[in-house]
Amino acid sequence: MIYFFIGNCSVALGTVCGQAVSVFAALFVLFKKGLGLQIAKSDFRINKSILTDIIKVGVPIALQDGLIQIAFIVITVIANSRGLIMATSVGIVEKLIGFMFLVPSAFLSAISAITAQNLGAGKKSRAKQALRYGLLITVVWGIICVVYNQFLPQTLVGLFTKDNAVVMSGCDYLRAYAFDCLFAAIHFCFSGYFCGSQKSGISFLHNIISIIAVRIPGAYFASLWFPDTLYPMGLAAPIGSLLSALICIGFYLYYNHKAAGRLHLSE
Question: How is residue 230 annotated by DSSP?
């Protein structure tokens, strides 16, 4: 039984085994039920027009995701420089926020797919309706996260540690960071809409502006000016998301106004 308690190796091994089970289960279902379509060797050829469209949409998204991960690494480095207690607190809260972000992340993907399908079918109003419902659901979820974490953050941070200093520091960070669940919900939905509209460059733009102008500088200066608390550092991410949300709303209104102008001219 000692082989089942080998520390970090067991965690890594469990993750790999879990992924392997998922792959084999997916292959089993595919072979049993089929794809519902026929795929031949001739289908695996390069179509320049389709490849170009994929690159135009995919490259900005890939760059955006890569730079976001780099930003998280930088913020983690900043947190680690603040001592063991604060570094541990930040690590715990990042995991909690990642869980809370499952809802807006899921809606980003869903809205992107639904928007692309409906715009391809010439049903722009349905694409906008998907955006509206996505915003409604994710904003309500964000409000719930914000309210809960303002009053009971210790119930979540305490799941990971019983160290009072870490819990108190983590609660400060979570109270501030929780606002990101609300503001990020807005720009996540708009990002999905823009990506589905083949305007992924907008999603890339607002994220990069947010990272360079607010998230990293905000975390850095908060660590210098407020060395005794994580609350100001926790506000860097929500303020960055607020900026992203405002940029997204601005572009959305701009394109709506532009489309209305074209409709007026055609009449």
Answer: S
- Round to whole Å and give the CA distance between 222 and 219: 5
The answer on pLDDT for 236 being more than 70 is: yes
161 and 38 both lie in a single domain? no
d(CA 75, CA 48) in angstroms, rounded, equals: 40
Which residues are within 8 A (CB) of 207 and not within 5 positions of it... i.e. 6 or more apart? Answer: 64, 67, 68, 191, 244
CA atoms within 13 A on the CB side of 182: 17
Q: Please indicate, yes or no, whether residues 4 and 79 belong to a single structural domain of this protein.
A: no
**Residue 55 to residue 226: CA distance in whole angstroms:** 43
Q: Which residue from 78, 63, 19 is spatially nearest to 205, judged by alpha carbons?
A: 63
pTM given for the model = 0.83
What residue type is assigned to position 190 of the chain?
F
Confidence band, pLDDT 50/70/90 cuts, at residue 263 = low
pLDDT in tens, 185-199: 999 999 999 988 888
Cα three-residue angle 64-68-70, rounded to 5 degrees: 120
Same domain, yes or no, for 23 and 63?
Answer: no
Query: Per the structure block, which two tokens stand in for 248?
Result: 């997204």
The answer on pLDDT for 143 being more than 90 is yes
Number of domains in the chain: 2
Structure tokens at 43: 């289908």
Angle 83-157-108 from CA coordinates, rounded to 5°? 100
Query: Is residue 215 located within the same domain as residue 234?
Result: yes
Q: Which domain holds residue 3?
A: 1-45
